[in-house]
Each structure stands twice: as structure tokens, then as C-alpha cells.
Amino acid sequence: MAGSRETVQPRDAAVPSPAATPPARVSPPAQVSPPAQVPAPGQVPEPAQAGLFSRVSVGRISEIIVEQIRLLMRQGQLKPGDRLPPERDLCERFGVSRVTVREALRMLESSGLVEIRVGARGGAFVTVPSSDRVGEGLADLLTLSVISAADVTEVRMILETGIVPLVCERATEEDLADLEDICARSEAAITAGDYSMDMSLEFHIRVAQATHNPAVVMLIESFRGPLLMSLQRARDAAPEMDILGTQEHEKFIEAVRRRDAAAASTIMREHLERTAHRLGR
Q1: pTM
Q2: What is the pLDDT along the chain (281 residues), one digit of tens a residue?
Q3: CA distances to 10, 83, 256 from 6, in Å
Q4: How far apart, in whole angstroms, are the C-alpha atoms of residue 142 and residue 140?
Q5: What is the CATH number of domain 59-129?
Q6: Domain ranges of the chain
Q7: Which one of 3.40.50.720, 3.30.465.10, 1.10.10.10, 1.20.120.530 gives the CATH number of domain 132-278?
């Protein structure tokens, strides 16, 4: 045990960040309230089963390393594709152990900021964050009822009607052909009885891509999970609306092809309002 303290204390002092140096910031074990001091039964909910949890560590030093690397990415000093220094070099630069560096790299990887590759040309490489991770978080919030499917539809009303003028202005023949193909496949699936809301999701994502604005695409795609869940809940409320929804998609394409932003906006707004109505909003 004494050996472990000797390795931790020097690392805390060596971290190049004022926030990590004060020993008082690390809470001693004595301050943690034991389960036995919980109020009497009946006054609080029963605790979750112990088997649901696993042992964790504070990870304060590794979090500081993560924030330093995040800052370098935001400043443009680290760009997608750049390879971070080897673990040994990072240990020397941060003044910490290899265990701490590896923990920081795992945190960066779980955030989608780096990719860990193995092999002779392996290492930690800076990546472009994926909007999927944002969507996963929003989907979790939707699942846990922190936000509702109706809330998601309200956001869609703002985003998807707002991008219609860009779509009408910038959509190419390839964009229109792809949208028409989605409608054709949707009609065939409805006839065959195997239509799914994934097709409706595909249509709306492809509409966003027709803006040819990567920021718009990332924003809409970040809603992929919540959007699909809200679409499914709307369908559960009125499954017979599959055909009408596909027909509205086709009318929207026709308006975009005419470059009629007013008509296309009206179609999209009514399309989303009907979805909101089915979700009780």
C-alpha cells in the first residue's frame, strides 16, 4: 500500500495544470457516507442491486489530460488524421504514469475524438467526431422520458421547414432521383406489408443532404435516433398513415423540382404537423 502512495503523489504534483495540484480537491474516503447512514426504510427508494455497478476510480488527472488534448483540437493544433505521440512520450510530457495516459486515451476514444489502432503503424489518431454520438445521447434522453417524442417533432418543425428554401435552391438532379427512389421503395414496401419507419427517416435525412451544407447535415443526422423513435411512436398511434406520408413525400419532391419553396414549405409543415398531432402536441 505504501508503494502505491509513492507513485500517485508525484504524478499529482507533476500535472501541468493548477486545477490538479491542490491536494484538498481530492475528497478523502472518510467523507463518503456509508449506506448504513441512509434514513430509515420507507422514507427513500430501495437502492439498486449492487451487481449493477462496477468499481471506478477518480480519474481526475486523466480528465485534465483529456481537456488539454480537446483544447489543442479546438485550436486546430491537432487535426483529424494527426497521430498523437507514443504513450511513453505522453507520459514524459504530462509527468504521469502510463496507466493514466491510457485512461485518458480511452476517454478520448469513447468520446469519438481519437481512434486507437494496433499494429506496426498503430497509435492514437485524431478523428472527426460523429453526429451519431450526439444522436445516441438524445435517444437515451428520449428513452428515459427526459424529452418526449412530441418535443423532438417540435424541433423538427423548426429545422426541417427552415431548410426547405436551401433544398429548393440547391437540390441537384441526383438528389431528386435519390428521393424519388426512396419513395418508390417505400410504396413497394407498403404493398408488400413490410414498410418500416427507417424509410421515412432515410427520406428526411436525404432531404437534409440536399442542402449541401455539412453543418445542416450533421445537425439533422444527430437527431437520427430520436427522429426514428418519434416516427415509430407516431406510426404506432396511426399505422394507416404510412401511405399518406409517402404521398406527401412525393408531393414535396415535385415542389422542389419546380423550385417552389413556398409550396414545398407548406407540404413539409403540414406533414410534420400531422405527426405532431398524432403525438398529442
Answers
A1: 0.58
A2: 444 333 333 333 333 443 444 444 444 444 444 444 444 444 444 444 444 443 434 447 888 888 888 888 888 888 888 888 888 888 888 888 888 888 889 888 877 788 888 877 788 898 876 655 555 555 555 555 567 778 888 888 999 999 999 999 999 999 999 999 999 999 999 999 999 999 999 999 999 999 999 989 888 887 787 788 888 888 888 877 889 999 999 999 999 999 999 999 999 999 999 888 887 65
A3: 7, 32, 69
A4: 5
A5: 1.10.10.10
A6: 59-129, 132-278
A7: 1.20.120.530
Set of cell numbers at residue 124: 492514437
Cell numbers given for 225: 435516433
Residue owning grid cell 514524459 = 92
What cell was used for 230? 418519434
